[in-house]
Amino acid sequence: MTGIVTEPVGESGRYRVGVDVGGTKIEAVLVDGGTAIRASHRVPARRGGDNVVEDVVGLVRTVAGESVDRLAGVGIGTPGQVDSTAGTVSHVVNLDIDTLALGPEVSARLGGVPVRVENDVNAAALGAAQLVPGAKGTGAVVMVNFGTGLAAGIIVDGVLQHGFSGAAGEIGHIPLDPNRFDCPCGQRGCLETVCSGASVQRLWPVDGPAMPDLIAQAHAGRADAVRVLGIVSHAMGDALQIVAQTVDPRVIIIGGGMAKTGEPLIEVMSEELYRRERECPFLQGLHVADRLRLAPMDQPIGALGAALVI
Ligand SMILES: [Zn+2]
Q: Per the record, a Pfam family (predicted)?
């Protein structure tokens, strides 16, 4: 769905725009007073803060059309270290951004419309929770994002949980893995060094996505694939247990690029959890595998969720 709004926005100005800033593309959606997407558009990402601001502003104008002056707000999900209060983002390595006052700059170029900047995983969690069956409503829902890195977005009663310093859900840098690979964060054995998309690609280097091939080769009985999949699935099991036993969410959404693996990924995770359950009646009672759901990878969950943070 791409293009200009056909339905005129009401005087209430209740329409919002959500923008998902990614390493390869920037995507925007126009969302009505509920959660329905009325228009969407995407462009390839360009590096550098000025280009990112220009592209975000351009996308907002494109999807909002003539409603751009009456928007209730713009939400932006971005990788990097986000200060939602100041609207700034730092250390977006993929886009050559050191520090950028993304919120204030976009707001200034759109006539002062309210802009809120949010961590991309958190925004995607909000969007996915709208679309995954059984994830909407009261209680806790978590999306574990197996993307380039590993992090979780925690939602309680429909509200994102940031914690005291904004680090709630940063499970990727919990050092648990017995293989103890070095992590760029300075620690060793972080979960992210084993079960993020980037690390699986490193452990199982193939052309194209590594996880589907790794699973297929392991199922075919290739010994090295069985060994690597064992390492990866062990770390995935740790990540899921951390989420289940700290937040105890009703639904655990599996998101990020690795979710494109589809059901075989859920099967690998479930098998790991069942293996642990056989040795632990406590874990057996939690039914963690039953709570796993795939994020809808054909939907713009990052942009939709960004629209909902405003
Ligand atoms: Zn780390």
A: ROK
CB 30 within 8 A of CB 15: yes
Q: Which residue type occupies 200? A: V
| Rounded distance from Cα 184 to ligand 1 centre (Å) | 6
Same domain? For 174 and 283 the reply is yes
Find all residues with CB under 8 Å of 22, minimum gap 6, and list them. Answer: 45, 79, 120, 302
The domain tally of the chain equals 2
Residue 261: inside a domain: yes
Q: How far is the CA of 173 from the centre of ligand 1 (A)?
A: 4
Same domain, 235 and 284: yes
Question: How far does the centroid of ligand 1 lie from the alpha carbon of residue 199, in Å?
Answer: 12
Q: What is the CATH classification number for the domain harbouring 95?
A: 3.30.420.40
User: Is residue 4 a part of any domain in this protein?
Assistant: no
Quote the domain boundaries for residue 197: 133-294
As a whole number, mean pLDDT of residues 109-138 equals 96
Over residues 170-189, the pLDDT tens digits come to: 999 999 988 899 999 999 99
* Tokens standing for residue 255: 């998101």
Confirm whether 7 is domain-assigned: no
* CA 278 to ligand 1 center in whole angstroms: 30
Q: Which tokens hold the place of 57?
A: 């502003």
* Ligand 1 center from residue 189 Cα (angstroms): 7
| Distance in Å, CA 255 to ligand 1 centroid | 20
